[in-house]
Amino acid sequence: QWGALRQELLKTVGQNNFKTWIDPIEFSELDSGVATFHVPTNFVGNYVSQNYGDLILHQMTRSGHDVQRISFEVAANTASRPTLPSTGAPVAVANSTPTETRELAMTGAPLDGRFTFESFVVGKPNELANAAARRVAEGGPVTFNPLFLYGGVGLGKTHLMHAIAWELQSRRPDLNVLYLSAEQFMYRFVQALRDRKMMDFKELFRSVDVLMVDDVQFIAGKDSTQEEFFHTFNALVDQNKQIIISADRAPGEIKDLEDRIKSRLQCGLVVDLHPTDYELRLGILQTKVDSYRAQYPDLQLADGVLEFLAHRISTNVRVLEGALTRLFAFASLVGREITMELTQDCLSDVLRASERKISVEEIQRKVAEHYNIRLSDMIGPKRVRTFARPRQIAMYLCKQLTSRSLPEIGRRFGGRDHTTVMHGVKRVEELRTADAQISDDLELLRRALEA
Ligand code: ADP
Ligand code: MG
Protein backbone atom coordinates (compact mmCIF):
# COMPACT_ATOMS: atom_id res chain seq x y z
CA GLN A 1 0.00 0.00 0.00
CA TRP A 2 2.68 2.45 1.05
CA GLY A 3 4.53 1.45 -2.09
CA ALA A 4 1.68 2.60 -4.31
CA LEU A 5 1.31 5.76 -2.31
CA ARG A 6 5.00 6.47 -2.64
CA GLN A 7 4.69 6.26 -6.39
CA GLU A 8 1.90 8.81 -6.27
CA LEU A 9 3.93 11.10 -4.05
CA LEU A 10 6.94 10.81 -6.29
CA LYS A 11 4.85 12.09 -9.18
CA THR A 12 3.50 14.98 -7.16
CA VAL A 13 6.58 16.22 -5.34
CA GLY A 14 9.24 15.45 -7.93
CA GLN A 15 12.43 13.40 -7.82
CA ASN A 16 14.50 15.73 -5.67
CA ASN A 17 11.99 16.39 -2.94
CA PHE A 18 11.06 12.76 -2.94
CA LYS A 19 14.59 11.64 -2.38
CA THR A 20 15.21 14.16 0.35
CA TRP A 21 11.96 13.92 2.25
CA ILE A 22 9.67 11.05 1.35
CA ASP A 23 12.26 8.36 0.89
CA PRO A 24 13.52 8.49 4.49
CA ILE A 25 10.06 8.08 6.00
CA GLU A 26 8.47 4.71 6.49
CA PHE A 27 4.86 3.77 7.07
CA SER A 28 4.41 2.08 10.42
CA GLU A 29 0.75 1.44 11.15
CA LEU A 30 -2.80 2.58 10.74
CA ASP A 31 -4.73 2.37 13.97
CA SER A 32 -8.15 3.86 14.70
CA GLY A 33 -7.80 6.52 12.04
CA VAL A 34 -4.23 7.47 12.88
CA ALA A 35 -1.56 6.67 10.33
CA THR A 36 1.86 6.59 11.89
CA PHE A 37 5.11 7.08 10.03
CA HIS A 38 8.63 6.57 11.21
CA VAL A 39 11.08 9.34 10.48
CA PRO A 40 14.85 9.38 11.05
CA THR A 41 14.94 12.76 12.82
CA ASN A 42 12.68 15.38 14.32
CA PHE A 43 13.65 17.72 11.57
CA VAL A 44 12.50 15.42 8.80
CA GLY A 45 9.31 14.70 10.72
CA ASN A 46 8.51 18.36 11.17
CA TYR A 47 9.39 19.17 7.64
CA VAL A 48 7.34 16.41 6.07
CA SER A 49 4.44 17.14 8.37
CA GLN A 50 4.55 20.83 7.54
CA ASN A 51 5.04 20.53 3.83
CA TYR A 52 3.61 17.20 2.79
CA GLY A 53 1.37 16.19 5.69
CA ASP A 54 -1.68 17.44 3.92
CA LEU A 55 -0.78 15.74 0.71
CA ILE A 56 -0.09 12.36 2.30
CA LEU A 57 -3.34 12.55 4.20
CA HIS A 58 -5.21 13.48 1.10
CA GLN A 59 -3.76 10.67 -0.95
CA MET A 60 -4.36 8.07 1.73
CA THR A 61 -7.97 9.14 2.04
CA ARG A 62 -8.38 9.13 -1.70
CA SER A 63 -7.11 5.60 -2.01
CA GLY A 64 -9.82 4.47 0.36
CA HIS A 65 -8.15 4.42 3.77
CA ASP A 66 -9.99 5.65 6.76
CA VAL A 67 -7.43 8.13 8.00
CA GLN A 68 -8.25 11.06 10.25
CA ARG A 69 -4.74 12.16 10.95
CA ILE A 70 -1.16 11.25 10.44
CA SER A 71 1.57 11.28 12.97
CA PHE A 72 5.31 11.06 12.76
CA GLU A 73 7.58 9.34 15.19
CA VAL A 74 11.31 9.37 15.38
CA ALA A 75 12.38 5.80 14.82
CA ALA A 76 14.74 4.32 17.37
CA ASN A 77 16.53 2.71 14.50
CA THR A 78 17.11 5.02 11.57
CA ALA A 79 16.77 2.11 9.18
CA SER A 80 13.21 2.38 10.49
CA ARG A 81 11.82 -1.05 9.80
CA PRO A 82 8.07 -0.73 9.84
CA THR A 83 7.64 -3.80 11.98
CA LEU A 84 9.56 -2.32 14.90
CA PRO A 85 7.41 -1.09 17.73
CA SER A 86 7.62 2.65 17.81
CA THR A 87 9.59 4.00 20.67
CA GLY A 88 10.05 7.63 19.78
CA ALA A 89 7.81 10.46 20.82
CA PRO A 90 5.43 11.99 18.31
CA VAL A 91 7.01 15.03 16.76
CA ALA A 92 4.27 16.48 14.67
CA VAL A 93 0.67 15.70 14.01
CA ALA A 94 -1.53 16.49 11.07
CA ASN A 95 -5.28 16.36 11.32
CA SER A 96 -7.77 16.03 8.55
CA THR A 97 -10.40 18.40 9.86
CA PRO A 98 -10.45 21.57 7.77
CA THR A 99 -9.44 23.93 10.56
CA GLU A 100 -6.48 21.90 11.54
CA THR A 101 -5.34 21.44 8.01
CA ARG A 102 -5.00 25.16 7.93
CA GLU A 103 -2.69 25.01 10.90
CA LEU A 104 -0.51 22.80 8.82
CA ALA A 105 -0.12 25.52 6.26
CA MET A 106 1.26 27.82 8.95
CA THR A 107 4.74 26.54 8.71
CA GLY A 108 8.06 26.99 7.09
CA ALA A 109 8.96 27.31 3.44
CA PRO A 110 10.72 24.48 1.58
CA LEU A 111 14.48 24.42 1.70
CA ASP A 112 16.52 24.12 -1.45
CA GLY A 113 18.70 21.02 -1.28
CA ARG A 114 21.43 22.72 -3.30
CA PHE A 115 21.87 25.62 -0.86
CA THR A 116 24.43 24.22 1.57
CA PHE A 117 27.69 25.47 3.04
CA GLU A 118 29.55 22.96 0.89
CA SER A 119 28.21 24.54 -2.28
CA PHE A 120 28.74 28.12 -1.08
CA VAL A 121 31.91 29.57 -2.57
CA VAL A 122 33.69 31.89 -0.19
CA GLY A 123 35.65 34.93 -1.29
CA LYS A 124 36.56 38.33 0.12
CA PRO A 125 33.13 39.86 -0.52
CA ASN A 126 31.25 37.25 1.51
CA GLU A 127 33.74 35.78 3.96
CA LEU A 128 32.37 37.62 6.97
CA ALA A 129 28.78 36.68 6.22
CA ASN A 130 29.85 33.09 5.68
CA ALA A 131 31.76 32.97 8.95
CA ALA A 132 28.86 34.44 10.90
CA ALA A 133 26.41 32.04 9.30
CA ARG A 134 28.63 29.09 10.12
CA ARG A 135 28.94 30.19 13.70
CA VAL A 136 25.17 30.36 14.11
CA ALA A 137 24.80 27.01 12.34
CA GLU A 138 26.89 25.32 15.02
CA GLY A 139 23.83 25.55 17.22
CA GLY A 140 25.86 26.44 20.28
CA PRO A 141 24.84 29.03 22.86
CA VAL A 142 23.40 32.17 21.30
CA THR A 143 26.17 34.74 20.99
CA PHE A 144 24.69 37.38 18.73
CA ASN A 145 21.02 37.90 18.26
CA PRO A 146 19.77 38.52 15.70
CA LEU A 147 22.19 37.69 12.94
CA PHE A 148 21.30 40.20 10.27
CA LEU A 149 22.53 39.44 6.74
CA TYR A 150 22.08 42.02 4.06
CA GLY A 151 23.14 42.59 0.47
CA GLY A 152 21.93 43.09 -3.09
CA VAL A 153 19.91 40.69 -5.19
CA GLY A 154 21.47 37.33 -5.95
CA LEU A 155 24.46 37.63 -3.63
CA GLY A 156 23.64 34.54 -1.57
CA LYS A 157 21.44 35.62 1.36
CA THR A 158 18.87 32.91 0.83
CA HIS A 159 21.58 30.39 0.07
CA LEU A 160 23.29 31.10 3.41
CA MET A 161 20.03 30.93 5.35
CA HIS A 162 19.14 27.56 3.88
CA ALA A 163 22.68 26.38 4.57
CA ILE A 164 22.23 27.31 8.22
CA ALA A 165 18.98 25.35 8.36
CA TRP A 166 20.54 22.27 6.77
CA GLU A 167 23.54 22.40 9.05
CA LEU A 168 21.39 22.79 12.15
CA GLN A 169 19.32 19.85 11.04
CA SER A 170 22.29 17.56 11.07
CA ARG A 171 24.01 18.97 14.16
CA ARG A 172 21.01 19.70 16.31
CA PRO A 173 18.06 17.61 15.13
CA ASP A 174 16.37 18.37 18.45
CA LEU A 175 15.95 22.04 17.57
CA ASN A 176 12.81 23.35 16.00
CA VAL A 177 13.99 25.46 13.08
CA LEU A 178 11.57 27.62 11.16
CA TYR A 179 12.55 29.30 7.91
CA LEU A 180 10.23 31.52 5.94
CA SER A 181 10.16 34.73 3.95
CA ALA A 182 8.79 37.92 5.43
CA GLU A 183 6.07 37.74 2.82
CA GLN A 184 5.01 34.33 4.10
CA PHE A 185 5.12 35.65 7.62
CA MET A 186 2.68 38.35 6.64
CA TYR A 187 0.50 35.96 4.71
CA ARG A 188 0.22 33.64 7.70
CA PHE A 189 -0.42 36.50 10.03
CA VAL A 190 -3.25 37.83 7.88
CA GLN A 191 -4.68 34.35 7.54
CA ALA A 192 -4.56 33.82 11.29
CA LEU A 193 -6.38 37.10 11.84
CA ARG A 194 -9.03 36.18 9.33
CA ASP A 195 -9.54 32.72 10.76
CA ARG A 196 -9.40 33.98 14.36
CA LYS A 197 -6.41 31.79 14.99
CA MET A 198 -4.06 34.33 16.49
CA MET A 199 -3.43 32.18 19.55
CA ASP A 200 -2.20 29.35 17.33
CA PHE A 201 -0.14 31.76 15.31
CA LYS A 202 1.56 33.17 18.37
CA GLU A 203 2.09 29.74 19.82
CA LEU A 204 3.68 28.45 16.65
CA PHE A 205 6.09 31.33 16.27
CA ARG A 206 6.97 31.46 19.92
CA SER A 207 7.71 27.76 20.13
CA VAL A 208 10.53 27.67 17.62
CA ASP A 209 14.16 27.46 18.68
CA VAL A 210 15.55 29.15 15.60
CA LEU A 211 13.54 31.59 13.52
CA MET A 212 14.76 32.68 10.11
CA VAL A 213 12.97 35.42 8.22
CA ASP A 214 14.18 36.11 4.70
CA ASP A 215 13.79 39.48 2.91
CA VAL A 216 12.49 41.35 5.92
CA GLN A 217 12.30 44.61 3.94
CA PHE A 218 9.02 43.24 2.65
CA ILE A 219 7.16 44.13 5.83
CA ALA A 220 8.22 47.79 5.64
CA GLY A 221 5.14 49.96 5.48
CA LYS A 222 2.86 47.09 6.56
CA ASP A 223 1.99 48.30 10.02
CA SER A 224 0.17 45.48 11.73
CA THR A 225 2.53 42.86 10.32
CA GLN A 226 5.45 44.90 11.64
CA GLU A 227 3.80 45.08 15.00
CA GLU A 228 3.32 41.32 15.19
CA PHE A 229 6.84 40.72 13.91
CA PHE A 230 8.16 42.98 16.65
CA HIS A 231 6.34 41.03 19.36
CA THR A 232 7.43 37.69 17.94
CA PHE A 233 10.99 38.94 17.74
CA ASN A 234 11.00 40.18 21.33
CA ALA A 235 9.39 37.06 22.71
CA LEU A 236 12.03 34.88 21.08
CA VAL A 237 14.94 37.07 22.10
CA ASP A 238 13.67 37.04 25.67
CA GLN A 239 13.73 33.24 25.58
CA ASN A 240 17.24 33.40 24.19
CA LYS A 241 16.20 31.79 20.91
CA GLN A 242 18.28 32.45 17.83
CA ILE A 243 16.89 34.75 15.15
CA ILE A 244 18.35 35.16 11.69
CA ILE A 245 17.14 37.88 9.39
CA SER A 246 18.00 38.90 5.86
CA ALA A 247 17.24 42.05 3.90
CA ASP A 248 18.34 43.81 0.77
CA ARG A 249 19.85 46.67 2.76
CA ALA A 250 21.09 47.60 6.22
CA PRO A 251 18.47 47.89 9.00
CA GLY A 252 18.86 51.64 9.23
CA GLU A 253 18.24 52.06 5.54
CA ILE A 254 14.96 50.23 5.27
CA LYS A 255 12.32 52.89 4.66
CA ASP A 256 8.97 52.73 6.42
CA LEU A 257 10.26 50.40 9.07
CA GLU A 258 9.54 51.48 12.62
CA ASP A 259 12.53 52.86 14.48
CA ARG A 260 12.12 50.46 17.38
CA ILE A 261 12.31 47.56 14.93
CA LYS A 262 15.34 49.03 13.20
CA SER A 263 17.15 49.36 16.48
CA ARG A 264 16.14 45.85 17.52
CA LEU A 265 17.50 44.46 14.26
CA GLN A 266 20.79 46.21 14.89
CA CYS A 267 21.41 44.79 18.34
CA GLY A 268 23.00 41.60 17.19
CA LEU A 269 25.52 41.17 14.44
CA VAL A 270 24.94 42.99 11.17
CA VAL A 271 27.00 41.71 8.24
CA ASP A 272 26.76 42.51 4.59
CA LEU A 273 27.37 40.49 1.48
CA HIS A 274 29.38 42.73 -0.82
CA PRO A 275 28.99 42.68 -4.58
CA THR A 276 31.02 39.82 -6.04
CA ASP A 277 34.50 40.43 -7.37
CA TYR A 278 36.11 38.76 -10.35
CA GLU A 279 37.83 36.03 -8.31
CA LEU A 280 34.66 35.05 -6.50
CA ARG A 281 32.70 34.89 -9.73
CA LEU A 282 35.36 32.72 -11.30
CA GLY A 283 35.34 30.46 -8.24
CA ILE A 284 31.57 30.07 -8.42
CA LEU A 285 31.76 29.24 -12.11
CA GLN A 286 34.48 26.66 -11.57
CA THR A 287 32.52 24.98 -8.78
CA LYS A 288 29.47 24.93 -10.97
CA VAL A 289 31.37 23.40 -13.86
CA ASP A 290 32.70 20.67 -11.59
CA SER A 291 29.19 19.81 -10.57
CA TYR A 292 28.15 19.70 -14.22
CA ARG A 293 30.83 17.18 -15.10
CA ALA A 294 28.66 14.28 -13.99
CA GLN A 295 25.71 15.51 -15.97
CA TYR A 296 27.62 16.30 -19.16
CA PRO A 297 30.68 14.00 -19.08
CA ASP A 298 31.67 14.54 -22.69
CA LEU A 299 31.51 18.30 -22.87
CA GLN A 300 34.67 20.16 -23.78
CA LEU A 301 35.21 23.62 -22.37
CA ALA A 302 37.69 25.88 -24.11
CA ASP A 303 40.23 27.89 -22.12
CA GLY A 304 39.22 31.40 -21.27
CA VAL A 305 35.46 30.93 -21.40
CA LEU A 306 34.95 31.00 -17.65
CA GLU A 307 37.28 33.97 -17.29
CA PHE A 308 35.34 35.76 -19.99
CA LEU A 309 32.02 35.14 -18.24
CA ALA A 310 33.38 36.14 -14.83
CA HIS A 311 34.62 39.35 -16.38
CA ARG A 312 31.53 40.20 -18.35
CA ILE A 313 28.64 39.15 -16.14
CA SER A 314 29.02 41.07 -12.94
CA THR A 315 25.40 41.82 -12.12
CA ASN A 316 24.48 38.96 -9.83
CA VAL A 317 25.29 35.34 -9.17
CA ARG A 318 21.89 34.11 -10.25
CA VAL A 319 22.39 35.57 -13.72
CA LEU A 320 25.90 34.15 -13.84
CA GLU A 321 24.69 30.67 -12.93
CA GLY A 322 21.80 30.89 -15.34
CA ALA A 323 24.17 31.80 -18.16
CA LEU A 324 26.39 28.82 -17.45
CA THR A 325 23.46 26.43 -17.24
CA ARG A 326 22.18 27.64 -20.55
CA LEU A 327 25.58 27.37 -22.13
CA PHE A 328 26.02 23.76 -21.05
CA ALA A 329 22.53 22.76 -22.07
CA PHE A 330 22.97 24.39 -25.46
CA ALA A 331 26.39 22.89 -26.11
CA SER A 332 25.25 19.41 -25.20
CA LEU A 333 22.21 19.80 -27.42
CA VAL A 334 24.25 20.72 -30.47
CA GLY A 335 27.07 18.40 -29.44
CA ARG A 336 29.83 21.00 -29.72
CA GLU A 337 32.72 22.17 -27.66
CA ILE A 338 32.05 25.28 -25.59
CA THR A 339 34.23 27.81 -27.38
CA MET A 340 34.33 31.57 -27.04
CA GLU A 341 32.36 31.83 -30.23
CA LEU A 342 29.62 29.50 -29.08
CA THR A 343 29.49 31.38 -25.78
CA GLN A 344 29.01 34.71 -27.46
CA ASP A 345 26.33 33.33 -29.75
CA CYS A 346 24.44 31.48 -27.10
CA LEU A 347 24.57 34.27 -24.52
CA SER A 348 24.43 37.36 -26.67
CA ASP A 349 21.33 38.71 -24.91
CA VAL A 350 22.70 38.13 -21.40
CA LEU A 351 26.01 39.67 -22.36
CA ARG A 352 24.36 42.71 -23.85
CA ALA A 353 22.10 43.19 -20.83
CA SER A 354 24.97 43.02 -18.39
CA GLU A 355 27.16 45.48 -20.19
CA ARG A 356 28.24 48.01 -17.64
CA LYS A 357 26.37 51.25 -17.94
CA ILE A 358 28.75 54.18 -17.90
CA SER A 359 27.21 57.48 -16.88
CA VAL A 360 27.86 60.98 -18.21
CA GLU A 361 28.82 62.08 -14.68
CA GLU A 362 31.40 59.33 -14.42
CA ILE A 363 32.98 60.39 -17.69
CA GLN A 364 33.05 64.05 -16.70
CA ARG A 365 34.61 63.20 -13.36
CA LYS A 366 37.29 60.93 -14.82
CA VAL A 367 38.24 63.34 -17.58
CA ALA A 368 38.39 66.33 -15.23
CA GLU A 369 40.58 64.30 -12.92
CA HIS A 370 42.84 63.24 -15.77
CA TYR A 371 43.42 66.80 -16.98
CA ASN A 372 43.51 68.15 -13.49
CA ILE A 373 40.69 70.65 -13.85
CA ARG A 374 37.64 71.24 -11.72
CA LEU A 375 34.36 69.55 -12.59
CA SER A 376 32.67 72.96 -12.44
CA ASP A 377 35.06 74.26 -15.11
CA MET A 378 34.40 71.26 -17.30
CA ILE A 379 30.68 71.99 -17.25
CA GLY A 380 30.97 75.78 -16.92
CA PRO A 381 30.97 78.47 -19.61
CA LYS A 382 34.72 79.25 -19.85
CA ARG A 383 36.06 78.66 -23.34
CA VAL A 384 39.82 78.73 -22.82
CA ARG A 385 41.66 75.79 -24.29
CA THR A 386 42.59 74.33 -20.85
CA PHE A 387 38.91 73.68 -20.21
CA ALA A 388 37.55 73.44 -23.74
CA ARG A 389 39.73 70.52 -24.83
CA PRO A 390 38.94 68.24 -21.88
CA ARG A 391 35.28 69.20 -22.30
CA GLN A 392 35.35 68.07 -25.92
CA ILE A 393 37.07 64.86 -24.98
CA ALA A 394 34.45 64.16 -22.34
CA MET A 395 31.70 64.86 -24.89
CA TYR A 396 33.34 62.50 -27.33
CA LEU A 397 33.54 59.74 -24.72
CA CYS A 398 29.90 60.31 -23.78
CA LYS A 399 28.95 59.80 -27.39
CA GLN A 400 31.07 56.65 -27.63
CA LEU A 401 30.37 55.00 -24.31
CA THR A 402 26.80 55.93 -23.45
CA SER A 403 23.56 55.74 -25.36
CA ARG A 404 22.79 59.43 -24.79
CA SER A 405 21.80 61.57 -27.74
CA LEU A 406 23.68 64.76 -28.67
CA PRO A 407 21.01 67.10 -27.20
CA GLU A 408 21.03 65.07 -23.98
CA ILE A 409 24.78 65.27 -23.74
CA GLY A 410 24.63 69.00 -24.41
CA ARG A 411 22.18 69.43 -21.56
CA ARG A 412 24.53 67.62 -19.16
CA PHE A 413 27.35 69.96 -20.16
CA GLY A 414 25.84 73.08 -18.68
CA GLY A 415 22.95 73.29 -21.17
CA ARG A 416 24.98 73.49 -24.38
CA ASP A 417 23.45 73.14 -27.79
CA HIS A 418 23.62 69.82 -29.65
CA THR A 419 25.62 71.45 -32.47
CA THR A 420 28.29 72.36 -29.94
CA VAL A 421 28.49 68.72 -28.90
CA MET A 422 28.62 67.59 -32.52
CA HIS A 423 31.44 70.01 -33.23
CA GLY A 424 33.36 68.80 -30.17
CA VAL A 425 32.99 65.14 -31.14
CA LYS A 426 34.22 65.87 -34.67
CA ARG A 427 37.18 67.81 -33.39
CA VAL A 428 38.28 64.95 -31.13
CA GLU A 429 37.89 62.46 -33.96
CA GLU A 430 40.31 64.54 -36.02
CA LEU A 431 42.74 64.93 -33.17
CA ARG A 432 42.68 61.23 -32.43
CA THR A 433 44.39 60.47 -35.70
CA ALA A 434 46.59 63.54 -35.73
CA ASP A 435 47.72 63.81 -32.13
CA ALA A 436 49.39 60.81 -30.50
CA GLN A 437 49.06 62.32 -27.03
CA ILE A 438 45.29 62.72 -27.39
CA SER A 439 45.01 59.26 -28.83
CA ASP A 440 46.84 57.82 -25.80
CA ASP A 441 44.70 59.85 -23.40
CA LEU A 442 41.55 58.55 -25.01
CA GLU A 443 42.67 54.98 -24.80
CA LEU A 444 43.65 55.38 -21.16
CA LEU A 445 40.38 57.06 -20.22
CA ARG A 446 38.32 54.50 -22.04
CA ARG A 447 40.05 51.68 -20.25
CA ALA A 448 39.64 53.34 -16.86
CA LEU A 449 35.94 53.88 -17.52
CA GLU A 450 35.28 50.37 -18.74
CA ALA A 451 37.15 48.67 -15.92
P1 ADP B 1 19.74 36.41 -2.59
O1 ADP B 1 18.84 35.67 -1.62
O2 ADP B 1 20.81 37.19 -1.89
O3 ADP B 1 18.99 37.23 -3.59
P2 ADP B 1 20.42 33.74 -3.42
O4 ADP B 1 20.88 33.18 -2.13
O5 ADP B 1 19.06 33.32 -3.88
O6 ADP B 1 20.53 35.32 -3.43
O7 ADP B 1 21.52 33.38 -4.53
C1 ADP B 1 21.24 33.42 -5.92
C2 ADP B 1 21.89 32.25 -6.60
O8 ADP B 1 23.29 32.42 -6.59
C3 ADP B 1 21.62 30.92 -5.92
O9 ADP B 1 21.47 29.92 -6.88
C4 ADP B 1 22.86 30.69 -5.08
O10 ADP B 1 23.11 29.33 -4.91
C5 ADP B 1 23.93 31.34 -5.92
N1 ADP B 1 25.02 31.89 -5.12
C6 ADP B 1 25.11 33.13 -4.59
N2 ADP B 1 26.27 33.30 -3.95
C7 ADP B 1 26.95 32.14 -4.07
C8 ADP B 1 28.23 31.67 -3.62
N3 ADP B 1 29.05 32.45 -2.90
N4 ADP B 1 28.59 30.41 -3.94
C9 ADP B 1 27.77 29.63 -4.67
N5 ADP B 1 26.57 30.00 -5.12
C10 ADP B 1 26.15 31.24 -4.83
MG1 MG C 1 16.80 35.71 -1.44
What do you see in this structure?
- The protein has 451 residues and is α/β, with parallel strands linked by helices.
- It folds into four domains: 2-104, 2-Layer Sandwich (GMP Synthetase, Chain A, domain 3), CATH 3.30.300.180; 124-273, 3-Layer(aba) Sandwich (Rossmann fold); 278-353, Helicase, Ruva Protein, domain 3 (Orthogonal Bundle); 360-450, Orthogonal Bundle (Chromosomal Replication Initiator Protein Dnaa, Chain: A).
- It has 21 helices and nine strands.
- The chain has a five-stranded parallel sheet, sandwiched between helices.
- Helix 3 links the parallel strand 2 (34-39) and strand 3 (69-74).
- It is elongated, with a radius of gyration of 29 Å.
- Residues 77-106 have low confidence and may be disordered.
- Adenosine-5'-diphosphate binds next to helix 6 and helix 13.
